Amino acid sequence: MEKMIQDFIESSKQQWDEEYKAQMWDYLSDITEYARYSVVYGYIRKFAAAEGILDMGCGAGNLYDLLTEQEKPAYVGVDLSEEAIKIASRKTDAQIFHCADINHYTPPRSFDVIVFNESLQYVPNTPAKLLE
């Protein structure tokens, strides 16, 4: 089962990289998507001090864009796609974006908020991951 999951993750990584190279996900930074990210931001502000935010499946860092318009939170973004991380990393000089499989990523510290924006479905053992 683990081998099957790893094979799926590797093929997904290649697909995500190709799609980011082809700019298929650029629309996520368009004004039409702003409302969705604003809802996520609203939940962050309502339920946490947002002193530390871990964005699992951060893509090109669109949530980071919205967060830094409002404040300067301690933020870390993780995504499987190297291409997405390259795009996200252009947004700041800080080394806050990391290319990694969210199933095997170990955060460097604890966070007040962990965001899985359209990425939780890629975590086979969700309860165990959330307890980490």
From TrEMBL:
For molecular function, the Gene Ontology terms on record are: methyltransferase activity
The keyword Transferase is annotated on this UniProt entry: yes
**Please, one GO biological process term?**
methylation
> Sorted alphabetically, which InterPro entries does this protein's record hold?
Methyltransf_25 (IPR041698), SAM-dependent_MTases_sf (IPR029063)
Ranges where the Methyltransferase domain occurs: 53-126
Answer yes or no on keyword Metal-binding: no
For this UniProt record, the keywords arranged alphabetically read as follows: Methyltransferase, Transferase
What this protein is called in its record is Methyltransferase type 11
Which organism is this protein's natural source?
Answer: Paenibacillus lactis 154
